[in-house]
């Protein structure tokens, strides 16, 4: 190839990569493109199956799995500690020297934190405290503002599903609290989820824009309790599938109904 | 693949399980300890009473759990004075005395909010008196009448604000802060449900207007519904907005007699006789339902 790169013929005319060498490869690709597509499909499917098997294993060892929140703890906590946090956000002053491991940032429990919070937002502590409950798809921002106009002093957000919030951009956008006006405070964000890592990630994302985080342990709805597939659950699941107009086929490999 | 254990969804038929997490004490305490270690804002937990064979047992179990939660570092508890079995047609009255017991036990350590059976400001004040809680929380009654907590001087000498005025006001707020756009609501579905809750009493009488509401796709459609209800009120000579009652809130709480003389629930009665559809069924939550079921994305 010598000095041909400076003013020689283009690379495809080089003796190194001749048309004689490249032509069989091209013709093979053209002839066998269906086969190649099939192969790729098989490889991808194998990956999907193996990942669903991993899911099943993860559930089987779920009891142990929930204790490992290593992903969150290993993450440099500066990511969230250096955020611009509004001074009125927390009833406690945030110590900037909080150790980066996050373990010492526990707030001391102050009996009067709620009163102080309300006072800071201009509510008298003498009047009774009226609170708007967290309600799915119903404690939305315009409704909270209407309730506040009529004497509600503290509001909760609708329940935020931790897993969806941490995995779906679309969901996170809908549940973002950063657009709210200053009058929509004091506000407590309600989160649900059983995976501590996800709940924590969700809570850390929401806390700069609210005055508290709430875990939902009060909702009575829902028919599915067990973590592992159970005959009864599967039958309920089947019914649910049949009730749905458009069953989502990509869920089927996981379901084994 | 019922992998998720503790998600809760307030609207019917979703995955899980808020109140179920309450019975998974270890998991709950672990979650609380992780959060209190890392959060810089107070952590609150919304709880119910634990189900048990007898009331005393239920209260004892619940108090023990609440104490554990407070020991784990929770900054506030919101106690709903019912167990997870008290819902829908079996709602019943909330147990304020049980909340009082919790306040007596833990009230000097953390603030406690009381929740359940609040359908007027007077009842809210009564609840505060009996439970001695720091605050009182209401959900369904406020949905139907957002001015529930309004002091009398705010109402300009009247007893109530007309429900059409409240619905109009809500839709005006939606124009400024759309529920979809960072407002934590689901756009028109959310607004539709609100209008349905506020105008429930009228929509039960006028199924044609109700159908327009169900079919509405835009905020303008909803405004049309409110206007139609307003015209209805204007046409009725005997409609007195100060005498309006909470019908949606009462749907599980009002008992009526059917033809055979049996006492049945109002909601059930309407469902059987009039094809009544609860507003919750107006909300299409299939996607979320699946999401919760499979602990995965849509």
Task: Provide structural commentary.
The complex is a heterodimer of chains A (257) and B (298). Chain A is 45% helix and 8% strand. Chain A is of the alpha/beta class. The relative contact order of chain A is 0.08. With 298 residues, chain B is of the alpha/beta class. Chain B folds into 2 domains: 18-143, Alpha-Beta Barrel (TIM Barrel), CATH 3.20.20; 163-286, no CATH class. Chain B has helices at residues 18-21, 25-38, 55-71, 96-106, 121-131, 140-144, 163-176, 187-198, 200-205, 207-215, 219-235, 266-274, 286-294, and strands at residues 43-48, 76-80, 112-115, 135-138, 255-257, 263-265. In chain B, the strands form 2 sheets. Chain B has a 4-stranded parallel beta sheet. In chain B, helix 7 (163-176) runs antiparallel to helix 11 (219-235) and helix 10 (207-215) packs antiparallel against helix 11. Chain B starts with 17 loop residues before the first helix and ends with a helix. The model of chain B is unreliable at 1-17 and 276-298 (pLDDT under 50). Strand 1 (129-132) of chain A pairs parallel with strand 4 of chain B.
Q: In terms of topology, how is this protein built?
A:
The complex is a heterodimer of chains A (257) and B (298).
Chain A lengths: L3 H4 L11 H13 L1 H28 L1 H4 L4 H5 L3 H4 L31 H8 L8 E4 L8 H9 L4 E3 L3 E2 H6 L1 H6 L12 E6 L3 H11 L5 E6 L13 H13 L8 H4 L2
Parallel strand pairs in A: 1-2, 2-4, 3-4, 4-5
Chain B lengths: L17 H4 L3 H14 L4 E6 L6 H17 L4 E5 L15 H11 L5 E4 L5 H11 L3 E4 L1 H5 L18 H14 L10 H12 L1 H6 L1 H9 L3 H17 L19 E3 L5 E3 H9 L11 H9 L4
Parallel strand pairs in B: 1-2, 2-3, 3-4
Antiparallel strand pairs in B: 5-6
Helix pairs in contact in B: 3-4, 7-8, 7-11, 10-11
